[in-house]
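Lab notebook page, bench 4
Experiment: in silico fold of construct C2
Operator: M.H.
Input chain length: 325 residues
Purpose: comparison with the prior construct
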Amino acid sequence: MKRMFASLAALGAVLMLGSASAQFTPGTMECIAPSDPGGGWDFTCRQMAPLLTELGFVSGTIRAQNMSGAGGAIAFAHVVNNHADNEGLLVAASTATTSRIAAGEFGDFSVEDVRWPAALGADDGVLAVAADSPLNSLEDLVAAWEENPRDISIVGGSSAGGWDHLKVLLIADAADVPVNDVRYTSFSSGNVAIVEILAGRADVFTGDLSEALPHFESGDLKGIALLSDSRLDHEATVDVPTGVEQGYDIVAPNWRGFYLPGDISDEAYDFWVDAFETVADSDEWAELREQNGIGDFRRFGAEMEEFAHKQAEDIQNLLKEIGAQ
């Protein structure tokens, strides 16, 4: 019964949207996952496709297609060069998309070559330390940096210049700490990096909440900042303040959403913005997020466009500062 009501509500939203988007009626669609099967992009397409159909936004089907290569660059080039006005196409995207564009990994392509309708969830960024660490806040971390940044060992699961590294550099940059002085060591995964914290060989972990959460629950780690819009309603993290609360306007989610071809009509773009807003409010999506450890992170339409462009710009500026570009 719950699903019936959700479907009727979504169908009503489509009918109401009809007057504003009469020229666009989605039928059979394609969703490109710019990766091999498995992982976040594949999940985004394969879970969202049946949900959009079930909620009545597509009259036909949405076929998920994997198009791996060059960290998403192959799919991006395919869309920009061959399908710029294809209104039957969705492409799964995430922080990896904007960060790799910013790093120049997509060649001469930019965030302006496509349209960004929505982010519907995220794995929130986090900074964490050992339970007995003298660091209890970003203020403590910045104070330690100001005394001697090389004394603070920071570890994460991405390579130098990757998203885990950039999260902590955004904090340093906002605190006027020279980013080249921040001492960061990369490991093969966030879980391996956390072992360094627990063994006392490193001071601060930078990564995703899903990696740190089991250690918050066990009491082995304590969070000094969630890089999210708001605190999380979870027993293990409810006392962890956001960076914004501590005076650092840094929101660094590993978000999940979509981009669309750059030359589609405004009617098609607006349709999907409204559709994804409705999906984000649905019980079905909330259930999927909870089952897969995805936080409730939302950006739509103009706000999402601004967010994607600013994220790419901030990352590009940081990479230039550390000499990675």
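Observations: The longest strand covers residues 114-123. Residues 21 and 270 are 7 Å apart (CA to CA).
Next step: discuss at group meeting.
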